[in-house]
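Q: I have 495 residues here and want to know how they pack in 3D. Can you give me a structure?
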Amino acid sequence: MQPLQIQNSLTGKKELFEALTPPNVGMYVCGPTVYSNVHLGNVRTFLSFDIIYRYLEFIGYKVRYVRNITDVGHLVGDADEGEDKIGKMARLQKVEPMEIVQKYTNDFHDVMRVFNILSPSIEPTATGHIIEQIAAIEKILDNEYAYEVNGNIYFSVRRFSEDYPYGELSGRKIDELLSNTRDLDGQSEKHDPLDFALWKKADETHLMQWPSPWGMGFPGWHLECSVMSTKYLGHRFDIHGGGMDLKFPHHECEIAQNVAANKVEKSVNYWIHGNMLTVNGRKMAKSEGNGFTPEELITGNHKLLERGYSPMTVRFFMLMGHYGSTLDFSNDALIAAEKGLSKLTKAVETLQNLQATEKENLEISVSDLSDKCYAAMNDDFNTPVLIASLFEGVKWINSASDERIRLNQDQIDGLKTIYTGFLGIVLGLENEGLNTEKSTGGEDLATHLLDLLVELRTDAKANKDYAGADRIRITLSELGVNVTDGKDGSSWSHE
């Protein structure tokens, strides 16, 4: 296996990756809470772990990749009090909660396909594991790290910290956390302000609830990931990932729950966190008015965009930044990414038609280029350095095409191996367009993209955003795609 170094959030150090049971690797990534459309920050997070998944498989590991769907228990504001995000959206749209779950799960999958993000090995849902969550709570209660108050079960952070460290992942200390914590309304029943909910009692207005030994209720958001990760990967596994914003409290709580339930000193060997997107130096957020949806990015229908950009351009742009660094989003950056991707794809096309010479060009070392590509990815999945190395090969290809240099067949074949492997398999970058076929479960990328845009138009009409719906229809029309509305929904056809 390649000597892979990973930046471990738990230790704050870059460490040599050693699988628990090679060649098998267990990786869990926190998936979406399916109450709204996917935003671009989500895309970057899942793209980062798509690259990690791809590269581990590329160098010979057999990865069980688990990415969950949160379809209950994630409350507004990420706190222990308030309304369930999915329940709230169901109430606002006057539909069943599972309709919201299905709608936005479908949207999530559509967006993942558009950006060529691979499906996980297993995609469990929180509602599908209620029994397992109740069992985990009972174990934590039996181990005396939790307590019941009025049908609510809370994890005792102070009691846990007497036996195990709490705050290692985020670097926070209990005393410091307490000094910055205020008692909030509705939390007075907790023994300690730092305690968090494992199970919440539901009143009659709560749309999603299940029977438990403590009455009707629903699981806490933190608990869900603990249960689903350990069920499919074991009480100790290799990699746990997610966005930087989940490090505290979500992932910190996961660690505590895993240890408290299963009495293991270390539940995860390597924690990996992807960083955020910024826009012109400011954090990307809906509240700032600078958040982008994939649909807005592709169509260009956003006040901060000069025009639309293709999914592969966006994918390439994101890969030009290291997953652990903030990435600034701008028109100039997207244009640069578009030009860079075009150079790479044209070079690959040129490579296919190069005529070989019998004599080897001793000034060109394809093996050295290959080593550089592996070295980049082995250095904590450093995609910017990998891309820079691939551009070195572009110079050789273009020079050979112009007959300024000559390459023999072994050199040409070596370059083909590099670009097929690193550009196609590892980075997942492929030619795109309406006439370019790409197999994704029997359908091409363009089809998925058009399906997504039509679905987004339908959502816009349902939300009475008729101007937005018209913009999508007009944009598609300009591309030669006609949208037809019928009693069974909308459909598209290409001229």
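Q: Anything worth noting?
A: Residues 183-187, 433-443 have pLDDT under 50 and may be disordered. The first strand starts at residue 5 and ends at 8.
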